[in-house]
Structure formats: structure tokens, C-alpha cells
Amino acid sequence: MELFLPFLVALLIAVGVYLVLSRVLIRLIIGLSMISYGANLSILLAGAGVRQEAPPLLDVAGPYNDPLPQALILTAIVIGFGTTALLLVLSVRAYQVTRTDHVQELAEQPDPVEPPVVYADPERPSVSPEVGPGRRRP
Amino acid sequence: MNLLAWPILLPLVAGAVLILVPRPRARTAVSVSASLSVLAVSLAIGVRAFGGEVLVAQMADWPAPFGISLVADRLAAMMLVLSSATGLLTVLFAGSSLQHPPRRGQGPLLNRAREAFGAQSLLQFLFMGVNMSLLSGDLFNLFVAFEVMLVASYGLLLLGGELPQLREGFKYVVVNLIASAIFVIAAGLAYGLFGSLNMADIAVRLAEHGPDQRITLVALLLALVFAIKAALFPFGFWLPDSYPVPPAATSAFFAGLLTKVGAYALIRSFTLMFPQEELIHTVILVLAGLTILLGGFGAIARRRWRHVLAFANIAGIGYLTVGAFAGTSASLSAALYYLAHSVLVVFALFLVAALAERIAGPDYRIEGHLARYPWLGVGYFVAAMALAGVPPTSGFVGKYSLISALIGAGGDLRLWIAGGAVVTSFLLLYAGMQIWQRFFWGESDAVHQVRLPRPMVAVTATALVLVIGLAALSGPAFEFAQKTAAQLSDGRQYIEAVLEPRGRLLEVE
Fold first, then answer.
1. B297 Cβ partners below 8 Å, 6+ apart?
2. For residues B78 and B470, what is the distance between their CA atoms, to the nearest angstrom?
3. Cβ-based neighbours of A2, under 8 Å, separated by 6 or more
4. Is A36's CB within 8 Å of B184's CB?
5. pLDDT tens for residues B187-200?
6. Crossing angle of helices B492-508/B199-209, nearest 10°?
């Protein structure tokens, strides 16, 4: 098992990187999840070498696996869950606004053009924006 | 309860309560009072830490390597005071700027919606994450703190959902998620190798163990993570376009403090845990030198204020990282002084830019504002001079001591970097003067008078006073930076303060 798991970590991260490099938002998000699965599994592996004679609070004969890496993974999973949900909502919103799920097209969206400010009468500048001369509508 | 828990708990409670508060004014009041109390606590911590004490809190009274430790030495206390001071100003500025419509069109509605949908609450969660990162004495807790900070910053960056926010926010979230995955792997490997996640404990074990390639690997992964967060060259590509998109107060705090938390983590981990990894120190030094040049050239290439300032911020990160990794105590103390200077001056300049944007719109196409807004001009001039490092500002003190420390350290590499630092100072001066020429200089016929909300002006003035205050008190401030550098170079005080309870526990047994 300990020989198999490193290859699984490598596979998960390789698949994740492949998906992150693709140009479709949803594949990118799945790729990020894969990378975080690989990361979590690697904590389990790294912690597998640390063995203790007895559980921290009990007086029982060992050896036992260290429970700490599993607690760390649990924390990382919860955080990953939250960020993945956020990223999914973000991609839906980006699709609604730009009508594209292509990373390149999303990245090349121009800023909305601000209409230039024009003043009705430069001799009599207004005092406040509420009553002052407005923008020319495009 | 221990003093060190308050800077984390107060923003947490305030952030949760703010979701329930129905009125904008009440929200601002709650948020401001929370930030004021955090500032008071931070000053109390600061006074004790500046006196030379290392404050430690063991969570739930678990002794050091088993539980989570919060630690405040001089560096952490300095950053904590800076973060809560700029945090208070951010909250005040946001409270005012989100409620007063900046211009006609979509702006006012959108900003009120941002305020109603939790801008203040997210700011408090952001402060919680920042303070926890600064105080954390545990590698995995540092990861969690970074995540709290980043999730709040995703929210603040995206709140409002305008097209540039979505476009840049997507990049920002993806880059930071990848960095977080690397951080998780690094923390896991560190635990597997060292059998501990407590930074002081790791430092002791590594000092006993001696050089090892596996340790270098973990150090390299951590350096990569913190370099991405601190936007070192070439990992800073996400920063220059993403910082200008959120509302003014948010982007001021992001640029002023959030990037520096990455640099803080870099300094903390490589002075405490990995002082012996000389190869990585050199690599980071070179990257930081390139970051300085990138910031300088980027600043002269951009036109909009906040984009120029984002690149100037990158240059500032480069300066302080160069100082921290140049390897002498003189350069380290210069870097710490520069850290404080950079936080204050970048924050103040972003606030000035926010006022200017309110007057002229985001493109600043009209010149001649000096005649109608003389005090804005004076404030901008002082801060821009401090950014470029013209005497007698704090920037000059920081840059002069940094460059002379680099030359004093010797070696071709450090001389080249010192040369790059001087060149970038002139580039930043040029970038600052371009803004001056395009916005303040010239005929004032086309300028119209906009009523700037008083609280915004007052907050900006306070930020500028802090910049001037650092220059006026540069003697004591530099002395403090030297003491901080001495404490960092010799990790024993930190380690003893954290691990001492374990010794006591063993004696009892």
C-alpha cells in the first residue's frame, strides 16, 4: 500500500495539472480539486512514517499510527470544499456576464469603457456631482 | 484570557456580528469599534514586545510542540501594530466611501450594495486572518491563517461582480489555490520529516540535524509558496492587474499590508527555521533583485494611478526582501525599517489615488487639479517623494541604509542588486512625476469642484501624517529595527520562549 500510494499521488497531481492547463473553466476547477486531493493524500503518506508507541492520552500497547496527519487532512478538506464552492459560483457568474467559459476569452475581456467626462460650462464649475454637469451617455 | 488571542477573536466576533447588523451606520460603528479595540490590544502587545519580551500563548494550555502556539516577538508585534492601524483607517475609509456615491451611473448603487452585502464583515475576517498569520508559531496554523485571509480577500476582490473583478478575481483565486495546495504538501512533508509543526521545535531539530537535501526540498516548497503570496518575480504576475479592481479602501489594504504578510512569512521561516539553507537564501536574493527592477519598469509603463502604484508596491516588496536575504544584520534592520515605510507609504498613496479617482474618474484625463485641490497635491507630493526615496523622507532613510548595507556586505551580486535598487528609485521618481504632470500640473479650466466626504479626507490625512511621522521619528524607528533584526538573527530567545513550558512540564514529571 505504501508503495502504491505515492504513484496515486503523482497520478492525481498529474491529472490535476493537465486539467488546469486546459482552457475550459469547469475542467480547470476539477483539476484544482484533483491537485488538492493529491496534496491531502501526500500528507497521509508523509505522516505514515511517524509511528508512536501509544496514543497520546491512553496507556495502551503500541505501535499506533499518528492521528495528527488525519486531523490536518480534515482541515485541508474543509478549506478545499469551501474554496471549490466559491470557485464554482465565480465561474457561473463569469459565464453569465461574459457568455464564455473559455479561459483565454475571459482573460482578454476588455474593461468597460468609461465615457469621457464633459463639462457644460468650464467657466462655472459645479459644486457637487449630484447637481453638476453629468457624463455624456454613449 | 491571554492577550495574544484578542487580535484574532475580536475581528472574528465583529465579522460574525456585522452580518446581523441591519443599518449601514451601525455597521460602520461596530466595525470601527472592533478595529479600535484591536489597535489598543496590539499597542499593548507592542509595548511589551518592544521592551524585549517574547509573548507566547499556548492554545488550550497544551504545552508547546503538541498544541498550537501564538507568538509575538518584535517583528510580529511591529506588523501587528501596522496591520491594526491601517486596518482601522481602512474600515473608516470604507465606511465613508461605500456610502457616498463617487459619481453618477452605476457606482453609487453598486457601492451601497457592496456595503450591504458584507464588505465590512469581510474586512474584519481579513484582519482576523492577517493577525493570525502574524502571530502563528505553528506551520499548519499558518496555513489555516493564510486560508482565512485569502478567502476573505477573494470575497472582497469579487464583491460587486463587475467584469474586471470577475476577470482578475478568477486569476487571483486560481493562483492562490495552487499556492495553497503546495503549502499543504510542504506542511505534510515537514511533519513527516521533522515530526513537528511547531516552528520553534522545527528550528531546534534542524539545528541539531545539520544539512540534508530533504530539508532543502521542504524549504524550497515553502519559499515558493511565500514567494507567490509576496508576489516576488516571476510569481507576481497576478498582482498588478488584480489589486486595482476592488473598491479603493480594499485595494489600499491589499497593497499596503496583504502582500507584506507573504514577505513576513518568508522572513520568519527563513530566519527561524532555515537560516542554514544558503543556496535558497541566494536564490531568493536574486529573485528579489529582479522584483525591484520589474516594479520600477512596470511603474513607468502604466498610465492609471492604481496600476502604477501596484507596480511600485512590487518594487517595495523587492527592496525589503533583498534586505532581509542579503545576509548581514545591517541589511536586515534596513529591510525591517523599509517594511514599515512601505506599508505606510503605499497605503497612503492608494488612499490619495482613491480621492483623485473620485474627482476625475478612473482615467484621470484632466490636468490642472493643483489649483483646486492644493492639499491633495501636497499630500501626493510628500508620499510620492517618500516612495521614490528623496531626502528627507522615510524612503530615503530606508533606501540609503539598505543600499549602503548591500555595498558593505560585498560581493558582485550584491553590488549589482544595489545598482538595480538605485536605478529603480529613479524610475519610481519618474513614475511619480508623470502622475504629477498629468493630474496636478497644467491649466485648471476644465476642473470642476467635487465635494469630497470629510471622513475620507481625514483618513487620508492621517495616513499621510503616519508617513511623515515615520520620517520624523526615523532615529528611534531605525534603532527599533536594529533591535528587531538582532532578535531575528539570534533565534534562541524566540525558541526558549516557546519551548520553555515543555521544560517545566518535564521537570514536574
1. B427
2. 13
3. A45, A48
4. yes
5. 988 888 888 889 99
6. 100
Across-strand partners of B25?
none
B123 vs B43: CA distance, rounded Å: 20
Do the Cβ atoms of B373 and B364 come closer than 8 Å? no
Grid cell in block for residue B51: 521592551
A128 interaction partners in chain B (CB closer than 8 Å) = 450-451
B367 torsion bin: left (phi>0), alpha (psi -120 to 50), beta (else): beta
pLDDT at B431: 93
**Residue A51 — φ and ψ, nearest 5°?**
-115, 150
Residue B170 in contact with partner chain A when CB distance is under 8 A: yes
Total count of residues recorded for chain A? 138
For residue A66, the model assigns a pLDDT of 76
pLDDT tens readout for residues B138-180: 999 999 999 999 999 999 999 888 888 888 998 899 999 999 9
CB-based contact B125:B185 (threshold 8 Å): no
**Where do we find the cell 489598543?**
B40
Confidence of residue A134 (pLDDT cuts 50, 70, 90): very low
* Cβ-based contacts of B202 with chain A (< 8 Å): none
Binning pLDDT at 50, 70 and 90, where does residue A8 land? very high
B363 pLDDT more than 70: no
User: pTM value?
Assistant: 0.91
What type of residue is A133?
A: P
Nearest to B450 among A82, A83, A129 (CB): A129
What CA–CA distance (Å, rounded) separates B73 from B480? Answer: 12
When pLDDT is averaged across residues B41-59 and rounded to a whole number, the result is 90
Whether the ipTM is more than 0.85: the answer is no
The three-state DSSP-derived secondary structure of A69-80 is HHHHHHHHHHHH
State phi, psi for B228 to the nearest 5 degrees.
-65, -45
Contact B499, B64 (CB under 8 A): yes
